[in-house]
Design goal:
Layout: H1 6-29, H2 34-42, H3 61-72, H4 76-99, H5 104-113, E1 117-119, H6 121-124, E2 131-135, E3 138-148, E4 156-165, E5 169-178, E6 184-186, E7 201-211, E8 215-220, H7 226-257, H8 265-294, H9 299-327, H10 337-345, H11 355-366
Parallel strand pairs: 1-4, 2-4
Antiparallel strand pairs: 2-3, 3-7, 4-5, 5-8, 6-7
Helix pairs in contact: 1-3, 3-4, 3-7, 4-7, 7-8, 7-9, 7-10, 8-9, 9-10, 9-11
């Protein structure tokens, strides 16, 4: 089993004490966790996953998952928003080290300029989104991106657009677009059930010019690509670690609240059921991290990682459900942190792959079929 280096979890604990004091304020106001991001930047964590050779912290996928999982005990929104930057950097670093991918200039910029990446890949997935029209020197892109976590602090969007290639058909362009580019606008519309401090606003593109040099990859829309195998292997465990941290925090609160009735059989059974679910989530995450640290991407690995991802999502939600039941009626009050964690854990439903697409994907693999049609 792969464990994070202690320095990263200790750092999360150090920052988390202050973040926990701010968490309710951000939740109640729907405000972005800006102060927490400033603290993360002050501790040079923007480049935590950039290789040391390129000026970063050299954190591995296991390190970043451990950091974010620990941070989620204190502020779910900060951990999730930051994971949307971190999983991209971790993936870039993995590709640089293992595939000699031409991503060194971007990794150096992250280290030197502390630019923050904004991800839209979860909603784009295989199909991509946004319309790209070819023009001299690049493309004009129009579209709307959703779930853009950390948008107010973002520097560069890592996103897609679909070009109707006359020869190849619908083609997904993997592009990098500065948040400050002409025609890019952050929509103030993140009013949600949970993870309220992530500021995962929609971002719209209106005739945004994207130069040819900003296109890092072209792939067929709707078709599986080797890059997706890398993302499943490296990125998916990083951001899913947040939800295991949320579940662990809920479990700890519920046990504390249940102490006054711990001699009751029903309380004991609920505590056992809760820990069973949490163990399932922890084991699923541990296996995903083991894969990220020890194997190379492949279809078989992607299928296994996505099976673990499904188990993690269900077990994390079930853990918090049991925590609410164990804690009793007091858990329903907004003054109780457990109520907020119950809302925050619901976000795990909406990350790729969601239950039905995941079942379809791994079912096709089990039957000897490709992931796509």
């Amino acid at each position: 089993m792969q464990f994070p280096t202690t320095r990263w979890t200790q750092l999360a604990d150090e920052l988390g004490a202050t973040f926990a004091q701010r968490a309710a304020k951000y939740d109640e106001s729907d405000a972005f966790v800006a102060e927490n991001y400033a603290d993360l930047k002050a501790r040079k964590l923007i480049a935590a996953a950039v290789p040391e050779e390129l000026g970063g912290g050299g954190a591995t996928p296991a390190d970043m998952a451990g950091f974010l999982r620990t941070l989620a005990h204190y502020c779910s929104s900060t951990a999730l928003a930051f994971s949307m930057h971190t999983h991209l950097v971790t993936t870039l670093a993995w590709r640089w080290r293992n595939q000699k991918a031409p991503v060194e200039p971007l990794l150096k910029r992250i280290a030197q300029e502390e630019i923050i990446l904004v991800s839209t890949g979860g909603a784009d997935w295989l199909q991509g989104s946004g319309q790209a029209t070819k023009v001299d020197g690049g493309y004009r892109v129009t579209g709307r991106k959703i779930f853009c976590s950390g948008a107010p602090a973002g520097s560069l969007m890592v996103t897609t657009a679909v070009y109707a290639d006359p020869a190849e058909g619908p083609t997904v362009l993997q592009i990098g677009v500065p948040i400050t580019a002409a025609g890019v606008k952050i929509q103030d519309n993140w009013k949600t059930l949970g993870m309220r401090g992530t500021a995962s606003h929609d971002i719209t593109f209106e005739d945004v010019f994207v130069p040819d040099a900003a296109v890092s990859l072209k792939r067929k829309s709707g078709k599986w690509h080797p890059l997706i195998d890398v993302i499943v292997l490296v990125a998916v465990p990083v951001f899913n670690s947040v939800y295991v941290g949320v579940a662990e925090a809920a479990r700890n609160i519920a046990l504390e609240m249940a102490q006054k009735k711990r001699d009751e059989r029903n309380t004991q059974a609920l505590a056992g059921e809760m820990d069973n679910e949490l163990t399932a989530a922890q084991l699923a995450l541990a296996r995903m991290i083991d894969l990220a640290m020890t194997v190379q991407p492949s279809a078989a690995v992607s299928a296994e990682a996505m099976r673990c991802r499904a188990l993690l999502g269900r077990a994390s939600r079930a853990t918090v459900d049991k925590a609410m039941e164990l804690a009793g009626g007091n858990s329903f009050y907004r003054a109780n942190k457990l109520e907020r964690l119950f809302r925050d854990i619901q976000g795990v439903r909406f990350h790729p792959l969601q239950d039905k697409p995941q079942a379809l994907m791994v079912g096709r693999h089990a039957l000897g079929l490709p992931f796509d049609d």
